[in-house]
Design goal:
This protein has about 300 residues and is mainly α. It has 13 helices and 2 strands, in the order αααααααβααβαααα. It has a two-stranded antiparallel ribbon. The model has no long low-confidence stretch (mean pLDDT about 95).
C-alpha cells in the first residue's frame, strides 16, 4: 500500500531521502548507489523483502549477512539503512519497518542516478529468521546458466522477463575480480577481447585481490541507462550470468536484451514495474514478523 504511513509517519520518504543526501556527501556515490540496490535484491531473494539480510550474526545465530555470498555487500549500504531508521525512530518510533526503509532507498538511489521513479508500496514487516546457510544456498551464483537462473526466479514468483529486466541494475553495479576470473584467465572467447585486456590489468593472476572490483557496465557505469544491454550484445558482459542473457538458448531473454538495448524508455518502464514486483516477494504483514527498533537485530 503506497500510502501506508500517511497518518502514522507522513514524512517517512522525506526523512529517508534527507539521510541519503547526508550520506552521499562524504562517500563516493558509486559505492552507495549500487550497494543499496544490491542489498535490496539480496534481501528480497531470501525469506522475502523482510530486512533479514540486515541482521548481524551472533554467537548463537549465523545470519544471512555472514553468508559468503553476502560478505561483499557494501558496508555503507547497511549504514544508510541504520541512519534512516534512527532518524525515523525520533520522528515516529516503532512505526516504519526496516524492510520498507530499504525498499524506499532502492527506489531513491536509482532515481538519483538518472533512472526511473516509481511509487513504493509499503506496509512490510520485518522478518524473524535470518540464516546464512539458506542465503548461501538460494542466492544466484555468477556462473549459473540461464535455465538455473530462471528456475530460481520462478521459485520466488518472478518471471524470465523480471530476470532480464532486474539484471539491468548492473548498469550501475560492480563485481569483484574473483567472480569473473575464470573468463579472463582461461581466455574465454565469448568475452570481448578489448574488455578482457582492460580488466586483466586490475585483476592480475594468480594473486587475485578479492577487494578489487570492476564495473559491470564498462561503458557508462555512473549513469542508470540502457547501455548495459548494448554492451551485452557486444559480448562485454563480465559475468557469465549476464552474458547468457544475450546469447543463451532462451529466446525471450535474447529478445528482451535486444529490445532494451534499442529502447531506454521501455527499459525504464519495465524496470520500475519489476522493482515493484520484487518488492512484493515474501512480504510479511498483519501480525507476521515485527517492526524492529534496530535494523541490525531482532527486538
Amino acid at each position: 500500500m503506497v500510502g501506508f504511513y500517511d497518518e502514522s509517519c507522513p514524512r517517512v520518504e522525506d526523512i529517508i531521502y534527507e539521510e541519503l543526501v547526508k550520506k552521499m556527501s562524504p562517500i563516493p556515490r558509486n559505492i552507495i548507489i549500487p550497494g543499496i540496490l544490491r542489498l535490496f535484491f539480496h534481501d528480497c531473494y531470501v525469506q522475502g523483502c523482510d530486512g533479514s539480510v540486515l541482521i548481524l550474526p551472533t554467537e548463537a545465530d549465523n545470519s544471512e549477512r555472514n553468508a559468503s555470498i553476502n560478505l561483499s555487500l557494501a558496508g555503507d549500504a547497511f549504514d544508510i539503512v541504520d541512519k534512516a531508521k534512527a532518524a525515523l525512530e525520533k520522528e515516529c518510533p516503532g512505526v516504519v519497518s526496516c524492510s520498507d526503509i530499504l525498499a524506499i532507498l532502492a527506489r531513491d538511489v536509482v532515481h538519483w542516478w538518472e533512472g526511473p521513479h516509481w511509487q513504493v508500496e509499503k506496509g512490510r514487516r520485518d522478518g524473524l529468521i535470518s540464516n546464512a546457510t539458506e542465503a548461501q544456498l538460494l542466492m544466484p551464483k555468477s556462473d549459473e546458466n540461464i535455465t538455473t537462473l530462471i528456475r530460481g526466479f520462478e521459485s520466488i514468483g518472478l518471471s524470465t522477463t523480471d530476470l532480464v529486466t532486474l539484471s539491468g541494475a548492473h548498469t550501475i553495479g560492480f563485481t569483484h575480480c574473483i567472480e569473473f576470473a575464470s573468463r579472463i584467465f582461461h581466455n574465454d572467447t565469448t568475452l570481448n577481447s578489448k574488455i578482457r585486456e582492460k580488466v586483466i590489468l586490475s585483476c592480475p593472476f594468480p594473486k587475485i585481490d578479492r577487494n578489487v572490483a570492476e564495473a559491470l557496465d564498462q561503458t557508462s557505469e555512473f549513469v542508470f541507462d540502457n547501455k548495459f544491454y548494448k554492451s551485452l550484445r557486444q559480448r562485454k558482459g563480465l559475468l557469465l550470468t549476464d552474458h547468457y542473457l544475450a546469447f543463451d538458448e532462451n529466446y525471450l531473454s535474447r529478445k528482451l536484451v535486444y529490445r532494451y538495448s534499442q529502447d531506454q524508455e521501455l527499459f525504464f518502464q519495465e524496470f520500475a514495474k519489476a522493482m515493484v514486483k520484487l518488492g512484493r516477494v515474501g512480504v510479511k504483514s498483519g501480525n507476521e514478523g515485527e517492526i524492529r527498533r534496530d535494523c541490525k537485530k531482532f527486538n
